[in-house]
Each structure stands twice: as structure tokens, then as C-alpha cells.
Write a structure and sequence with these properties.
4-stranded parallel β-sheet, alpha/beta, two-stranded parallel ribbon
Amino acid sequence: MTEKITLSGVPETMLQTVYARARESAGRGTIHDQKAEEIIRRLDYDFSLADKDTAMRSGVIARTIVLDRLVCAWLAQNSGAVVVNLACGLDTRCYRVNGYARWYNLDLPETIAVRERLLPERGEISQLAMSAMDDWGDEITEQGTPVLVIIEGLTMYLTPEELLSFLPGQSVIELTNDDPRGTEPDMGKVEEALRAAGELVDGYL
């Protein structure tokens, strides 16, 4: 049985991105995203425009490859850490990686309402129905453990002032940082992931 989903504006983009991941997973298999495939099978939604938007799909998959590799590398160095996924939409990275003790998926209430229908999450995966601009740092109850904050597909909607204002101080650790006490990203891992993503994009275009 399929579910009818009606969204518009920015929230609707989460349907396009999950479709891109599901299509790639079920097709060439450059990424493997069983959860995304399950979501798409459950939805009654016209994905014809997304099917034609090759640039959008290639961008989503390239971004997925880069962030998956960086997150996995960071968690390998910080096993048992906490992850906060801002503006998560229908992101399924928490099912593709391991090594974390707690994962928070955070988005606007209307988005989390859709996510709870399609991805009911319990245990080590929690959902926070609030804006990334809110003081969400108070919702992270774990103490004395590294925290990784993922910001994907959000910053293009923010002004520089907004971007700086919503990062909650010491709760933030850079995505590409091997050492949570340091400040410099491991550019070797960044470049390796970007090369892999670039090869994928070349294959699409």
C-alpha cells in the first residue's frame, strides 16, 4: 500500500534527494541505500521530473559519497560518538554508517512528521522536531563525548550571519576533523572523497 505525500517548496526537495539515492542504489549501485528504496516503494508521488533531472541526481549522489566517506572516517576515529544531522529531511545516513552511540535527526516539525510516518526511529536514533536555528544544543543530553554535526543541503538557504549564529559553540566538531580537539580538517580525506564523487559525476554527464 502506498502513501500520498503532499509537500511544496523547500520541504519537497527531500523527496527528490531520497529518490535520487534510491534510484542509484537500485540501479548502478554506486551507493547502497536499502532504506531509500523502501521509502520510494511506499510513496504515491510523481517523480517524473526528478527522473529527468540528471544534474540534480548526480549532485545528490556525489554529495552522498563524499559525506558518507567523511562521516565513516570520523567515526572510525571517534567510536561511540554522538551525531547530529541538521535539516535531515529523509536522509538515511544513520542506516548506512555505524560506530556512533547516538544519532539525532533534526528538522522542522512538518518534515519530522513525514519522517516519522516513513522512518519511525527508536533506540539510538532520535528525531528532533525543531529548526536548526533553534537552540538545539540543549537537546543533546550526552556529556563528555565527541559530537559530529552534519550540515547537508541547508547552508545555501542561510545568510552568513545565520550560519554563524546557529552553531552551538563547543557542540560542533568539524566534519573532516580526525582529532576532535583540533581545528584543521584532513584535506587528504576530503580530496579522496571528492575525486571519487567527481568520477561518478563524469559517468553521469
